[in-house]
Sequence to fold (295 residues):
Amino acid sequence: MLRVESISYKLNNRPLLKDISFCIRPGEMVALLGANGAGKSTLMRLLSGERKPDSGRIMLYGADIKGYNRKVLATKRAYLQQYNPITMAFSVKEIVMMGRYGFKSLSSAKNDQLALTETMEICGLTDLADRSMLSLSGGEQQRVHLARILAQLWDNKDSVLLLDEPTNNMDIQFQHQTLAIAAAMAKKGYMIIVVLHEVNLAAQYASRIIILKDGRKWWDGTPVQVLTPQHMYTAFGIHAQAYTDQSSLKTIIVPKEIKLDAGKFNTNLKTTQQPVYKLKTIETDELINLQSVKI
Ligand SMILES: Nc1ncnc2c1ncn2[C@@H]1O[C@H](COP(=O)(O)OP(=O)(O)OP(=O)(O)O)[C@@H](O)[C@H]1O
Fold:
């Protein structure tokens, strides 16, 4: 279990995270949502150990992560950062194998090879194994980094995967595949925390959603509890409708209208009021059957 106990964090005297507490059990996939600058990546950096909280504790399986041996911690926690620039011509399989380097002495060569082969296969990279990372597209590179952190924890389901915007640069097929992989890992017993911007992907795959606003945790619950029009307005400033897809019983958020600042776009818009871009309202029976998505 991962338990976050009242953590706060300041940078240059500016509070970025304030008194955040929550707990994740094995098998849960929690999506972290919030507007730009809400503090999602900062929270992930604290959970990953990249930064230390000013107050509060992060407990993993009953022990403060501060007290863990680094190699042991590498077998229990993996972190996919939002940006993973690669400037040297490593091959795809070399990058994925880097997921195993942190605890090399704790793992056999056979296990390392198995983790490499299986994670590359699940991320659709087998055919790209010998390609240079520098020759890959942004979405392909992101899949390699996903495989790298899956490889890190591949043989230890008592662990936590921290995924900060893992679907960056991915096309729709790989966005769904990535989150389906994360959900499948959760089903095996892993704890998953994933930062997402696309609320409907969060609704579809996460078992729980936490919304941050201005560095605080505002809501924490099931997608149905958290993704309401009122919360969408408070967290993101958008007017939206919430539907329940009748076949999957998943929530779907559809923006209704987007406010634009007229003056900054077109002086021909002669109005003293903010214009509103009306979006077509989608009827429930037009919605995609979300259950048909498989790994
Ligand atoms: N190194 C830094 N120096 C100054 N301010 C920072 C730094 N890192 C983060 N911040 C500020 O902290 C706040 C939270 O940033 P964070 O990256 O956690 O937000 P986020 O919710 O992940 O946003 P996004 O959705 O845009 O990725 C922002 O206002 C950001 O400008």
In short: Residues 90-151 form one domain. Residues 11, 16, 34, 36-42 surround adenosine-5'-triphosphate (CB under 6 Å). The longest strand covers residues 14-24.
